[in-house]
Design brief:
heterodimer; A: 260 residues; alpha+beta; disordered N terminus; B: 89 residues; mainly alpha; 44% helix; globular
Chain lengths: 260, 89
């Protein structure tokens, strides 16, 4: 039967093993222990600050050139302090090992610095495009027109004639046109341009360099739906409604010449 | 003759939509959803030139000659806007 509880015995054994490893590594690496012990101390207090008083300022100050004996003494003192609780013992052991190993290899601090630098650089890199891509900054459009997210095309991207060309010429436009197009399509249906081009009557407009007006009577007989083509008939250059009176006048005065 | 002609480009007109709507309002034009950059006033409005001249002078305070009417409509709008004499016109 043991005089001490099994748990304490185990913990003490672990602590002794940790100290032995630390001492061995300290003896091997020589100059490393001072910083290792300091780091270990910081780690230990950092995990259990409430249970352990802060060391005196003189202990916290860097001690250079005191050699291996001082470092080992410091390490043992800290380990003893840490053994007051199971949690602190475990943390102390892990911290001691990690610190000694990292210090002897000499890689960890550099890695830590590099990681911090990378993190900062990444943060700034993130901020930079964020500032450049602010949505409230006016960005010139390729066409030189002010583009707004809420702007609607004057002609609109709504398919007026169902010809499938809206996307081809879809450009940012201004408020006011969309309702017109919506009004036209609601009154005469989608694909109205194609319908007019298919069934309308064609007239060459002698007042406008030979453009071709295609007229189709509105269902309610209130006038005409017009689609105006270029002289070759290959492009729509305008579309809209005209009164019967104006169209009749144009035919009567010879402005509009019927295309045979 | 094609039945599915594409629309001509209209980005210059897009930039002048407010001016265009003002013009349509004062000339009492019917619904005109689409005017391309190459269209002239003649391509969508069948008023007599003299009627238009009177309207323009009354609203914009600018004198309009027939030579201006054969310009692309977007250029005509620029001319009217640059030469308007009435603050509210």
């Amino acid at each position: 039967m043991s005089r001490t509880p099994p748990r304490s015995t185990c913990s003490a054994a672990i602590a002794r093993a940790v100290v032995a490893i630390a001492v061995t590594l300290v003896l091997v690496v020589g100059a490393a222990p001072t910083s290792a012990a300091s780091t270990f101390r910081a780690a230990a207090y950092g995990h259990d600050e409430g249970a352990h008083p802060q060391p005196a300022q003189s202990e916290r100050a860097p001690r250079r050139g005191r050699g291996v004996a001082v470092s080992v003494t410091e390490a043992l003192a800290v380990v003893r302090t840490s053994l007051r609780s199971a949690r602190a013992r475990l943390i102390a052991a892990v911290a001691l090992l990690a610190t000694v190993l990292a210090t002897s290899v000499g890689v960890a601090p550099a890695s830590a610095v590099a990681a911090a630098t990378t993190y900062e650089a990444t943060a700034y890199a993130y901020d930079a495009p964020s500032g450049l891509s602010r949505q409230d900054v006016a960005v010139p459009s390729p066409w030189g027109s002010p583009v707004g997210l809420s702007a609607a095309s004057w002609e609109g991207s709504v398919s007026f004639g169902g010809s499938g060309v809206a996307a081809e010429t879809a450009l940012p436009v201004v408020e006011g046109a969309a309702p017109k197009i919506a009004s036209l399509t609601s009154r005469y249906g989608e694909g109205i341009e194609s319908s007019v081009l298919k069934s309308g009557t064609r007239y060459v407009d002698t007042a406008s360099s030979g453009n071709i007006n295609v007229f189709a009577a509105r269902p309610d007989s209130s006038g005409f739906i017009r689609v105006t083509l270029d002289p070759s008939g290959q492009r729509i250059i305008s579309a809209g409604l005209n009164t019967a009176h104006n169209v009749a006048n144009g035919i009567a005065n010879g402005r509009f010449v019927l295309v045979p | 003759m094609t039945q599915d002609a594409p629309r001509a480009v209209h980005w210059k007109m897009d930039r002048r939509a407010t001016l265009a709507n003002e013009f349509f309002a004062v000339t009492h034009a019917e619904l005109i959803p689409f005017v391309s950059d190459e269209a002239t006033w003649y391509d969508f409005d069948y008023l007599e030139a003299d009627e238009l001249t009177a309207i323009v002078e009354s609203h914009y305070g600018a004198t309009l000659d027939k030579a201006k009417l054969v310009l692309p409509f977007w250029e005509l709008l620029d001319f009217l806007d640059a030469n308007r004499a009435h603050a509210d016109g």
